[in-house]
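Posting for a labmate who doesn't have an account.
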Amino acid sequence: MGIQQITAPPCARPASSGGFTPPSGVIHVNFRHTAGFTVVGNHLSQHRELSLVAIGLALHIQSLPAGAKIGIKRLAERFPESETRIAAALRELEATGYLHRSRLRLADGRIVTRTVLYNQPGAGRAAPSAPRSRTRPGEPAAPRPAPSPPREATRAPEAPQPQAAPVCVPTPTARTTPPPPLPRPAAPTPELQRTAAALLADLRRLSPRLVLSEQEVGVLTPGVVTWLERAAHPDSVRHALTADLPVPLKHPAKLLRHRITALLPPPLPGAHDLAPPPRPGAIVIPLQNCDRCDRAFRSRHPGHCRDCRAEAHAAA
């Protein structure tokens, strides 16, 4: 009786989530990172309008060092998604303010694309003002005025670059007269109308902000049919309607109506313009019956066929 008997198992360790284990759903097992991690806000990871590809692409770009190449072709080589899907995800990030791309001309004449990623779109405009505070030393630095002008001169062209407005297709301005009517197709076919309606309804897959009602799709369909009649490829129509969307976008149907009307390509030359001049009618020699063997042969005048003329010539 002096030996202690253990009749109950040891208590289980408490769960990592504060001692509470939910009966269903996800259970987090978190360990603190000490190196090689990226801080991402829930406003991005739980965004309601961005697709999963766009959220993952934004996370990948945030984890890259400054100066890394993030072109569409390079991202397509890195991930299994196609170039079209990656380009659509980049447009989603631009529409929601996380990404800004601009074309810049360097001193040597080359044109490059500058990409700026904002981890917090609302606070992205205030970021460029931080470097300027570094050029303002304290009061004891007053005896050194010479070094300050070169710093301002070197950083002057870089400071306004993140603040530049996105390059956008011109949006319709305030009008005192009614807008021009939508282009009308010359001979719409049911197939073209179905293709145009499907193209308009599918725009929300490329940009979540281009959600159109069924009535708006019906109104804009004749304009897109006119584009298709003029031999415009559907991918070209999608790019013209979704490239460089303004932020914020309040009236997507009005913007699409303006672009369909203002960016309408000219018709291609008709077949009659490219066809060669008409050739003169072919000369048809009539059929004749031989007076000797009654065989049919072609000649402008009646008489004998070739064989009969040869026999008569040989007999002579």
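Reply:
Got it, the structure tokens are right above this. Residues 286-316 form one domain.
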